[in-house]
């Protein structure tokens, strides 16, 4: 069973969409499970204080190292990786998602305020990851993105495991256009090649479409694709 363990100040944010649809069914089948840890439960004073002002001055507050480390040390088993959702982290992409999906557990720390004390990151070998070049009010929505991405790669979660093979990023390209019934809609028809029944031609058309879209929309991916 794959376990997603999330350290957060707002446990009520979860499970959200993670216990519905295919993910809910997979949870019922015990393919995966979700555990939320309320960081406030590990505060050391009667006021449940989890944050304090940063040394050196500056705006905002930081999550205290003693509180967060207490939560981590209580819950983690040996050799489990810990990830902190941070705008200065390494990019979270499909390659990293695949790597994590082969583990038995993912531990995610949701930051708030101005982040967390650097000493916790260093002492617990926490890996900082980012879902994009933008700032969120907290790590919870980013954690949902990460867990969602990984769960699709867990065997048995998606009804047809082969359905992920042709998706965007799986071969370094953006996905080709998709069409369904009706064949003609608002005077627009499905491309003839998709109606031909010629699987080789369809495959070639889809590849050419993926290449064109990637070249136009993501020149960075296109350059990597050409090198490979």
Q: What's the helical proportion of residues?
A: 25-40%
User: What proportion of the residues form beta strands (DSSP E)?
Assistant: 15-25%
Instruction: Count the DSSP helices.
Output: 7
Which spans have pLDDT < 50 for at least 5 consecutive residues?
none
Number of domains: 2
Largest sheet: 5 strands, parallel
Written as H for each helix and E for each strand, in order along the chain, the element string is: EHEEEHEHEHEHEEHH
Specify the CATH architecture of the largest domain: 3-Layer(aba) Sandwich
- Amino- and carboxy-terminal Cα gap: 35 Å
**Rg:** 22 Å
Verbal overview:
The protein has seven helices and nine strands; from the N terminus they run βαβββαβαβαβαββαα. The strands form three sheets. Strands 2-1-6-5-7 form a five-stranded parallel β-sheet, with helices on both faces. Strands 3-4 form a two-stranded antiparallel sheet. β1, α1 and β2 form a beta-alpha-beta unit. α6 packs across α7. The longest helix has 19 residues. The radius of gyration is 22 Å and the shape is elongated.
Keywords:
five-stranded parallel β-sheet, two-stranded antiparallel ribbon, alpha/beta, 32% helix, Alpha/beta knot, 9 strands, Trp Operon Repressor, Chain A, 228 residues
Compile the SSE list and pairings:
Elements: E1 2-8, H1 21-28, E2 32-38, E3 51-52, E4 62-63, H2 65-75, E5 82-91, H3 94-101, E6 105-110, H4 118-123, E7 127-130, H5 140-151, E8 184-185, E9 188-189, H6 199-217, H7 219-227
Parallel strand pairs: 1-2, 1-6, 5-6, 5-7
Antiparallel strand pairs: 3-4, 8-9
Helix pairs in contact: 3-5, 6-7
């Amino acid at each position: 069973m794959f376990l997603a363990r999330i350290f957060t100040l707002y446990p009520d944010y979860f499970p959200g969409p993670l216990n519905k649809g295919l993910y809910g069914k997979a949870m019922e089948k015990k393919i995966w499970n979700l555990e939320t840890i309320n960081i406030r439960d590990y505060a050391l004073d009667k006021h449940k204080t989890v944050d304090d002002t940063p040394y050196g001055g500056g705006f905002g507050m930081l999550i205290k190292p003693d509180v967060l480390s207490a939560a981590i040390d209580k819950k983690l088993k040996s050799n489990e990786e810990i990830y902190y959702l941070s705008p200065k982290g390494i990019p979270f992409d499909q390659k990293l998602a695949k790597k994590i999906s082969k583990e038995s557990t993912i531990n995610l720390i949701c930051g708030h305020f101005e982040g967390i004390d650097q000493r916790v990151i260093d002492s617990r070998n926490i890996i900082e990851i980012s879902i994009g070049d933008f700032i969120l009010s907290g790590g919870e929505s980013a954690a949902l993105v990460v867990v969602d991405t990984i769960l699709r790669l867990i065997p048995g979660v998606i009804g047809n495991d082969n359905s992920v093979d042709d998706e965007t990023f799986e071969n370094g390209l953006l996905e080709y256009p998709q069409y369904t019934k009706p064949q003609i809609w608002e005077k627009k028809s499905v491309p003839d090649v998709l109606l031909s029944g010629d699987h080789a031609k369809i495959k070639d058309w889809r590849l050419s479409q993926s290449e064109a879209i990637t070249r136009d929309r993501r020149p960075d991916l296109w350059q990597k694709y050409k090198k490979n």
